[in-house]
Amino acid sequence: MEQNNSTQQNISEKKEQRSLFVGMGVVLVALVAVSIIGFLFLNKPAEIIEGQADATSVKISGKLPGRVVELYVSEGDNVRKGDTLVHIHSALADAKMMQAVGMKEVATSQNKKIDAGTRIQIIQTARELVNQAKAALDIAKKTYDRMEALYQKGVVSAQKRDEAQAAYNAAKAAEQAARSQLALAEAGAQQEDKTSAEAMVSVAQGGIDEVEALLEDQYLVAPCDGQIDQVYPNEGELVMLGSPIMSLLKISDKWVTFNIREDKLKDLKMGEEITIEIPALDKETKAKVYYISDLGSYATWRATKTTGQWDSRTFKVKARPLDSIPELRPGMTVLLK
């Protein structure tokens, strides 16, 4: 009797296990079927091409080395073309102006003395001109040497170095002219003295014009309308020749940039209008493609297989929004629809 009960219990347990296995099998088959249906019929999510907004940034710098006396703007200020941005004072430039004015006065006085035929006064004045021209040459050479060193380090541009070299060459010419004038005066060549004296007046005036050109950059003004992006020095700090004082963001000149693999360029052509989305502004707008250029081999997508695949270059695409969007800021994320 007990053996029959045990047999029936074993049969019952086997049936329960079989039912459980069958149920699990049905669930597994249903999951596989749902996965296959989803893979075959569900759409793949659209690929997102992400870029960013940008705008023209203008570096504000001058050719006058000196100390920042006053900043008239702060970061974030909107300015108009011609607005005064900063005042820079240079004691060295003021001293050079005094020297240039003095050289012109000496040259003019010498010219008058030659006209009067006073030999001793001519020689004495010529010697003074030589001394002053030599002092000016020393200053110009030191300035050029400093600019050459900064140029070699990549701190200043070639243009700034060339301006310093031009000033140095002008100072050498002035010093040579002064020595020639002294030689003529000592030799007693009255006609040559007259010509040289007139030339020295012109050279001295050129020195004044040179310093005045430098002093024009005592007050730097905005070259265009825009917004002050960054201010580099503080008031009271020294700035070098050509060093940037601040950067001006030209808000009116905005564009968006995308880095796109070449196999996705077929729908993007020069002059074509595209739809872009600005998530931060929750806004869609149109933009016009105006620039397409490859980024070089460093941005190439390399094939992972030797056959059946090919390398794809990456291209930079720029487009300008057709609508004016004052809220669009450089650095904002932009999506290509």
List keywords for this structure.
12 strands, alpha+beta, 337 residues, single chain, 6-stranded antiparallel barrel, Elongation Factor Tu (Ef-tu), domain 3, 4-stranded antiparallel beta sheet, Four Helix Bundle (Hemerythrin (Met), subunit A), 5 helices, rod-shaped
Describe this structure in words.
There is one protein chain. This protein is α+β, with helices and mostly antiparallel strands. Among the domains are: 90-221, Four Helix Bundle (Hemerythrin (Met), subunit A) (Up-down Bundle); 251-336, Elongation Factor Tu (Ef-tu), domain 3, CATH 2.40.30. The protein has helices spanning 2-41, 91-116, 119-152, 158-187, 190-215, and strands spanning 49-61, 66-71, 78-79, 84-89, 219-221, 226-231, 238-239, 244-261, 273-278, 283-294, 314-321, 333-336. The chain has a 6-stranded antiparallel β-barrel with strand order 1-8-11-10-9-12. Helix 2 packs antiparallel against helix 3 (119-152), helix 3 runs antiparallel to helix 4 and helix 4 packs antiparallel against helix 5 (190-215). The mean pLDDT is 78.
